[in-house]
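Q: what sequence does this backbone want?
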């Protein structure tokens, strides 16, 4: 973000988050990447102690009542730590969104203070083995039995499967309804679900390690009806709202990871010499740095622009497009910038002497999760076409600005 566009309060917030980032033990990052740590609960607790979780949520629940722009400021700083720690920092914001937007006053009072104070950790159980992008193909079932719902099914790629206390779970409550009209959302508490909620597998990941990512199974797990988030069969609205924090946090974290790789590469290029010169004097290197700087700044503007649109209450469908653009562009950018950084470092960048190889493994995932970038393309063009076709009469008809524009017989569309 350009310094001139940040308020004094946002700069102060950034300094707070930078202090948290500097506090994170180097050994924790290394142990997580080596799978010696499965879930860094102490890190989440420290962020909570500093009142840095759930920045957008009301102060009465432990948040700061800030906006999306402020959260992006924080998330870029956390992003330099890599995908796992950025994700774990974001999860209270993601799961908390469902509770704040759709929860009852009792649910908010019950869970939000505990989440934002770090007493309870959270995860989202959305993806299933038979469907990633096809969310509405969910097969996990929840049937009502008196004052409880009984859940059967499984969810995979759950960050915090091993470690989280609460899970936001989507399940089908009306198998006869249309796919998007028969799902419900629940908060499932690990302590209440007991042995009917199991971690069947913790994945060995290429990167983004140490977050306890695994597959959960529900086998007759009994969930109180009071844990239903929003109305029964109303999870489509929850899901669509949740895609804002899911994708915005991914986009903002990508800014931090790209920045970290760029700074390593630029410093290396200034110190490394070849053929009697610093390698940044060679266009093959300096142009990669220039491209990376430009791409990072462009992504920042898009991410912050989307955040401002959300904060301003812009048209929800336009926000949906902007959020999708931000997620797609920022994550693609991060992958490109980290690859450029590795190319600049050469062979040493492929080793564990520098963290660039870890950042490369981490950034590969962010183009896949929270909706693949191909799905982002579908959303972007669909929402753009809808908006474009609706405004045709309100703007100048530039199609008519051609000398033979009146030759309608030449305008053949079918």
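A:
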């Amino acid at each position: 973000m350009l310094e001139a566009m940040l308020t004094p309060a946002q700069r102060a917030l950034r300094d707070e988050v930078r202090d948290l980032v500097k506090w994170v033990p180097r050994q924790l990052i290394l142990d997580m990447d080596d799978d010696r740590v499965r879930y860094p609960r102490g890190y989440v607790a420290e962020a909570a102690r500093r009142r840095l979780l759930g920045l957008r949520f009301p102060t009465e629940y432990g948040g700061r009542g800030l906006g999306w722009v402020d959260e992006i400021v924080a998330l870029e700083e956390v992003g330099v730590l890599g995908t796992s720690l950025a994700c774990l920092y974001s999860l209270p914001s993601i799961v908390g969104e469902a509770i704040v937007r759709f929860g009852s006053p009792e649910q908010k009072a019950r869970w939000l203070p505990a989440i934002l104070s770090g007493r309870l950790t959270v995860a989202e159980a959305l993806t299933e083995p038979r469907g990633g992008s096809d969310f509405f193909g969910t097969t996990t079932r929840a049937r009502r039995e008196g004052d409880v719902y009984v859940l059967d099914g499984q969810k995979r790629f759950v960050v915090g499967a091993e470690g989280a206390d609460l899970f936001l779970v989507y399940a089908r409550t009306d198998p006869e309804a249309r796919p998007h009209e028969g799902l419900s959302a629940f908060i499932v508490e690990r302590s209440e679900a007991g042995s009917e909620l199991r971690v069947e597998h913790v994945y060995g990941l290429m990167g983004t390690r140490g977050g306890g990512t695994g597959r959960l199974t529900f086998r007759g797990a009994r969930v109180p009806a009071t844990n239903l988030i929003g109305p029964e069969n109303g999870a489509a609205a929850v899901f669509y709202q949740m895609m804002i924090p899911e994708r915005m946090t991914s986009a903002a974290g990508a800014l931090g990871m790209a920045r970290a790789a760029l700074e390593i590469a630029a410093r290396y290029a200034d110190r490394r010499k070849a053929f009697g010169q610093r390698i940044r004097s060679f266009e093959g290197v300096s142009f990669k740095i220039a491209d990376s700087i430009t791409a990072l700044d462009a992504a920042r503007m898009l991410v912050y622009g989307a955040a401002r649109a959300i904060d301003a209450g812009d048209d929800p469908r336009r926000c949906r497009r902007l959020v999708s653009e931000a997620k797609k562009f920022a994550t693609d950018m991060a992958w490109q910038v980290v690859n450029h950084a590795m190319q600049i470092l050469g062979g040493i960048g492929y080793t564990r002497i520098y963290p660039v190889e870890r950042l490369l493994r981490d950034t590969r995932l962010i183009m896949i999760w929270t909706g693949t970038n191909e799905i982002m393309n579908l959303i972007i063009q669909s929402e753009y076409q809808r908006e474009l076709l609706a405004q045709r009469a309100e703007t100048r008809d530039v199609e008519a600005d051609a000398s033979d524009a009146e030759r309608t017989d030449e305008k053949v569309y079918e």
